[in-house]
Structure formats: C-alpha cells, structure tokens
Amino acid sequence: LPTSASDYLSDLNAQQREAVEYGVGTPAASPALLVIAGAGSGKTNTLAHRVAHLVLNGADPHRILLLTFSRRAAVEMERRVGRVLQKVLKLRSGVAPSLQWAGTFHGVGARLLREYAGRIGLAESFTIHDRGDSEDMIGIVRHELGFSSAQTRFPLKGTCLAIYSRVVNSQAPLSHVLQTAFPWCSAWEAQLKQLFDAYVQAKQDQHVLDYDDLLLYWAEMMTDPGLAAEVGGSFDHVLVDEYQDTNRLQAAILLAMKPTGQGLTVVGDDAQSIYSFRAATIRNILDFPGQFAEPAHVVTLERNYRSTQPILDASNAVIQQSTERYAKQLWTDRASSQRPLLVTVTDDAGQARWIADKVLENREAGVKLTSQAVLFRTSSHSAMLELELTRRNIPFVKFGGLKFLEASHIKDVLSVLRWAQNPRGRLSGFRVAQLIPGIGPVSAGRVLDAMASAPDPLAAMQAFQPGSAAQEDWRAFSQTYEMIAGAGASWPADLELAIQWYTPHLERLHEDAAVRRGDLDQLARIAATYPSREKFLTELTLDPPDATSAESGAPLQDEDYMILSTIHSAKGQEWKVVYVLNVVDGCIPSDMSTGTKEDIEEERRLLYVAMTRAKEQLQLIVPQRFYVTQQTGMGDRHIYGSRTRFIPDSLLKLFERMPKPPQPAGLAERGLTPEAAKIDIASRLRGAWK
Ligand code: ATP
Ligand code: MG
Is the CB of 43 under 6 A from ligand 1? Predict the structure, then answer.
C-alpha cells in the first residue's frame, strides 16, 4: 500500500477509527460490533469508511451486505464508499468495485426471495403490493366477509391493515395489539381474526406478497437451518445503519444470518428511534450486545461534526428531559453566535410567508436552495407552504409525500404490467378489466375466476365472452396482454404497449388527460432506467420516486431546489438551514399520541431528530392558530396551538425569539409623561367601580 493510501483513515477521530478497523485483521476472533452514538457524530460516515476499509483489505464487495433505512440512503452510502475507494485506488491505478448488495431490508428481502423462491414454495413471479394495494385488497376481503356495512362501524380498511401490520411486525398477539394501540377496535377481535385469515389466504392464492411479507418470508426462510447457513454464508459482512429503527423480525433475521455475531456491524442512536408505529423497538439496539455467546464490542462516538454549538445545546436540552436513553455526551468545536430561532407566527399562512421570505433571504446571502430544508410532522402540513413557494417560483422537491404512483392513471398502467407478470393477481386484473366499457365487477370476477383455475390463464382470457358491447375491446385488450405477457415481450417496449392501449381510456376517463399523459411519459422515462420489467415493478413498489411539485414543474437535474420532507423521511440527512413547521402541542407531540408515556417520548425524539438535521441555522416555527383533526373514530376536533411542551420556559434561553417578546415598555416609549400615566391608571380604577 502506498503510504498516502491510508490517508482516508487520518480524517477520522480515534473512536471512529477504532470502529472502522475493528476486527479487520482477525475476523474469526471478533464478536459483533455496535456503534452507538448521538446525531451527527459520524456513524454513517464511519460505516461507509468501514466498508471501504474492508474492501481495501481484501473483502469481496459481492459478499458485503449493507442495509440502510431507505433506498436513497443506500445510494448515498454507496457514493461515500466509492469516494474513499476511488481516492485510494487512483494511487494504485485500479477501478473502484461497486457493492452488489446495498439496500433496504425490504428491497434485499424481495431480491433474496426471488432467488430462493423455488426452494420455499413461492411463485417466482410473485407480485409485491404497496400499502395502497394492500389496503384495497384487505378492503375487498372485508367486503366479501360482509364486515363493511355502514351500520356495523367495523374498522376502516386502512385501520385493518395497520392492525394486521402491527401484529405481524411485533409478533405480539392480536388482543395485545388491540389493547395497547387500537383500543377502539377491541370489540372486533373475533372478526378481525377471521379477516386476517382470509386476507392471508387471498394473498397466497394470488401469489401476492405485501411489504410485511417480505420480512416475514425472509425471517421464516431463515428458521430453516440449511437455508439460514446458505443465505448467511453468502455474506462475509453484514452492516446495518439506523439500527434503532429495526423491528423484532429484522433483528431475528440478522441473528439468523450471523448467529455468532462475527461479521456483523450495526450502528444507531437510541435517542433517534422514531418508528415504533411500525413496530420498531428500541430494545433491539439496547439488547444487541448481549444476544451473542460473546458480547458485542461497543464503540461510542462523542464528537459532533454537524451542528454549531448553540444548535447542539438546544437539541441536547430537548432530549435530556427524556428519561429512557443511554446517556451520551456530545461536543463540537463549531462555535457560533447564532442561537436557534423560535418564531411565533399567527397561522399557517403566516408560517408559509415567513419561510418563503427567509428562504429567499438566505439564498441572497449565498445559501443555495439545496442547502435549505423544511421539515414537518405530517405530509399534509406543507400544503400552504407548497402554494406559497409555487407562487414565488421557488422550486422544491417533496420527500415522503403523496406518491406519483398513487395517481389513478399511473396505477392503471402499472396494473396492466403487473397483471401480465402475474395472471393470478386479482387486484390488478380487477382494476384493468373494469377499464373496458361494458365490463363491471361481475364479469371481471368471472374472467378472473376462469384464469385462476385454468392451466393456461391466457387461453382462458381469450376464451372469455363478455357482453356484446365489450367484445371488441376485450379482444383488443387480450391481444395487448398476450404481447406483454408473452415470451417475445421486451422491456421497456411492454410499457409502451400498455400506454398505447390505455390512452383512449385515459381520454375517456379524465378531463385533464393531457396532463396525465405527461405523467405517463414521465413514467416511461423512469422505466427506461431499469433493466427489466420485474426489477422496475419491484423497486417502484418498494421505493417510489419522490413526489415533485407539479405546478412549478419537476426541477431539472442541475437546477437549485429546496427540500420539503416529513421528519421521518429526513432521517440521517443534514442541511445548512432547517425550518421545522408547527412546533406546537397537538403536532409535536401529535394529538393522537398523547396516550402513553412511551408515545410522548417518541415524539420528543422526533423533535430531536428534526433539530439535529441543521448544520448552521435552525428555525422552529410556532403558529398561534393551529387546527388539528383527530381521527380515532371519535370525529374531528380543532384546537388552538401553543408552543410544544418539549420546549418549556426553562429552555427558552437557548433560543432567539422572533418577534422579540414584548418588554414592559418604558413610559417614554409609550409617549407618556409620569403625570399622564398616573391619570391613565386612575381613570381605569375609577371605571372599575361602575
Ligand atoms: P445521524 O445520527 O443524523 O444519522 P451520523 O452520526 O450518521 O448522524 P454522519 O451523517 O455520518 O453522522 O456525519 C455527520 C456530518 O459530520 C457529516 O457531514 C460528515 O461528513 C461529518 N463528519 C463525520 N465524521 C467526520 C470527521 N472525522 N471529520 C470531519 N467531518 C466528519
Ligand atoms: Mg447517520
């Protein structure tokens, strides 16, 4: 190794370096590694360096599994690893190898399940349902069981799916989940059991897996000792970022992959655990060291490289009121005289105006839009701001928002592809068949039944005779279907075929067909970047592209645009300037979460995550009028907002308040002489006697 080649390690502090180099020379004698540390201490950065260091010391990049929280995080991590490798390998005049296995648990699970489908009795062509599809499917099953009548007030399909998902991910009994998280549904326990049984059966019959199944099947596969050894053995190193937000199933999968802990690295921060509504459990990270025969090696990082001291002070103060965390000391040498701002505005509109003003001011001062982000609790909270930004021509991209893929015309076209991929997929079949005029739910059901039981689904489709009004269109569709599903199909020409077939229906169904046609073109452009239909459908379902602002137009690659994101989706990221919307009680903590102490603690961590995204400037906005809608089956409720309980008066000194809190004004400022003031008071007192 040329001497300067290991310079990449000299950028790291001693603890980071320890984590990067741990066990590299002696893998067989090294228990698992846990890096537990606060926000911005370089956990992700350290993980990237560790991967690069492993590769530079001979590890095969094809046998490294890197699990991140989002696809975006995986791409970013690969970029960081690549940068280190490039720097070193340039000196050795080699080409940086790329990682083959970097992604989310769900994405990696989907890939492994296709690979091992034959071994575990799964159809290789299984369809993956996103949350919307799963809701629809559970809704259909619920209807078929007769649970959906308005009088019975049976939980809505979204609630049913949420309960199901919670049961599956927490591996807790239904009764427990109902009691603790959905008490208003407890009366329906027996029916819910029946519903879930039927839902599981429907998925099996139709070769469908939902998000939860990707983890469930993977975990189940790993309970077979032979398969576990095979899957686990195909990776020398498994590394996980944001471990605090994994659930029991994910922990079980990791343990099955690396039962001794050797080759396993996890990093995380218990103070940033914010996904318990998806059954993530903070216990995973706290219990990690003790779950192996030889306890894991623990490294803690204490220096924060991200934020200025005043931002760190305020964030630390917010999280330190919490009782249930690993005590951590964070320090930084990034001094600044600017305290975080606590801005009071009248309402939503005032909030939007304030932010738009400050964004432009910051841009004038040289802070690019891409270095500024607005964070909020719930996607819908940014609506007013989106209007304001659009009005002022400030381009933005929204993360974690309503997905492009949820639009009905996009779903229609994707359903054609999915149905062709999996002829037994009833949800997509049902949707597509009914696009044809003259085909309603009854005929659609008939053709799907025929296709489900026939040895050759395509022949069954072609033999189907709908009512005379629909026959012509049905024949045309069958031909398109055959071309897409058939052996000669090529990608992405299939998508073009589907769009061509769909276009007359689009024009018939939607007044704004031209706009929607633009979306389909966009879909085709996205599709062209995927190597195959299968990969396209899988990844699109698991990791939809971020929604963009339709009115201002999707920003071009090199255009400057700002980020709007839910706090949940902002995990792990950082910006120079961060604005947080609606820092009021009823929002953070959200009104629905005022239930248990644990829920409140999670909301506190959420605020901590939001605050610690800021590098140089942090602005928390407090609208005086904030309306919440409560949807716990009890109807809506509106409240007036007041500053979040997580910033009590005792912490105000850590913030700069805007507008300045009114000082008791002196007489001179009020334009009064002492004499006039006396008269003023006296007259008021006189009035009180009347
Ligand atoms: P989070 O908890 O929010 O996920 P993290 O602990 O993963 O944060 P990183 O995102 O890895 O932190 O790092 C935060 C910032 O600090 C990044 O900009 C990173 O480049 C920088 N950083 C990390 N380590 C060092 C270092 N040794 N020297 C200089 N900068 C560093
Ligand atoms: Mg990180």
Answer: yes
CA distance 225 to 189: 35
Q: Give the CA dihedral 591, 380, 345, 628, nearest 10 degrees.
A: -30
What's the confidence (pLDDT) of residue 686?
54
* C-alpha to C-alpha distance for 351 and 209, rounded to whole angstroms: 42
Q: 300: CA distance to ligand 2 center in Å?
A: 14
Q: Quote the CA–CA distance of 639 and 586 in Å, as a whole number.
A: 8
Instruction: Identify the three-state secondary structure at position 637.
Output: coil
- At residue 141, the 3 state secondary structure works out as helix
CB of 179 closer than 6 angstroms to any ligand 1 atom: no
Contact predicate 311/346, CB 8 Å: no
Residue 445 CA from chain centroid, whole number? 35
DSSP label at residue 652: G
Q: How far apart are CA 138 and CA 160, in angstroms?
A: 8
pLDDT at 259 over 70: yes
Specify whether the CB–CB gap between 651 and 374 falls below 8 A. no
Q: What is residue 183's predicted lDDT score, i.e. its pLDDT? A: 86
Q: For the whole model, what pTM was predicted?
A: 0.81
CA of 392 to the centre of ligand 1 (A): 34
If you average pLDDT over residues 49-64, what whole number do you get? Answer: 94
Q: What percent of the chain has pLDDT over 90?
A: 54
> Ligand 1: which of 306, 308, 332, 578 to mutate, judged by most atoms within 8 Å of the beta carbon?
306
Residue 505 C-beta-side C-alpha neighbours within 13 Å: 23
Listed ranges 1-5, 521-525, 653-657; the one with the highest mean pLDDT: 653-657
Comparing 95 with 245, the larger pLDDT belongs to 245
Report whether 399 contacts 569 (CB < 8 A): yes
d(CA 633, CA 635): 6
Contacts of 673 (CB under 8 A, 6+ apart): 667
* pLDDT at 198 > cutoff 70: yes
Question: Hey, what amino acid is at 44?
Answer: T
Beta bridge partners of 351: none
- CA of 90 from ligand 1 middle (Å) equals 24
- For ligand 1, atom 18, name the residue with the nearest CA: 306
**pLDDT of 677:** 54
Helix (H) or strand (E) holding 103: strand 101-103
Mean pLDDT, to the nearest integer, of 310-318?
94
Percent pLDDT > 70 in the chain is: 86
15 lines ligand 1 (CB under 6 A): no
Q: Which conformational region is residue 564 in: left (phi greater than 0), alpha (psi within -120 to 50 degrees), or beta?
A: beta
- Ligand 1 atom 8: residue of nearest CA: 40
Q: What is the CA(292)–ligand 1 centre distance, in A?
A: 29
Which residues are part of a known binding site? 37-44
For ligand 1, whether the C-beta of 31 sits within 6 Å is no
42 phi/psi in degrees, rounded to 5: 95, 25
Q: Which ligand 1 atom lies nearest to the CA of residue 39?
A: 2
Cβ(41)–Cβ(303) below 8 Å: yes
- Pocket of ligand 1 contains residue 12 by CB under 6 Å: yes
Q: Is 269 helix (H, G, I), strand (E, B) or coil?
A: coil
Q: 13: Cβ below 6 Å to ligand 1?
A: yes
| Mean pLDDT confidence for 86-111 | 83
Please say if the pLDDT value at position 663 is more than 50: yes
> In this predicted model, what pLDDT tens digit does every residue of 432-468 receive, in sequence order?
999 999 998 889 999 999 999 999 999 999 999 998 8
Distance between CA atoms of 152 and 177, rounded to whole angstroms?
Answer: 21
Across 635-647, average pLDDT: 72
In this predicted structure, the answer to whether residue 564 has a pLDDT above a threshold of 50 is: yes
Q: Name the helix (H) or strand (E) containing 397.
A: strand 396-399
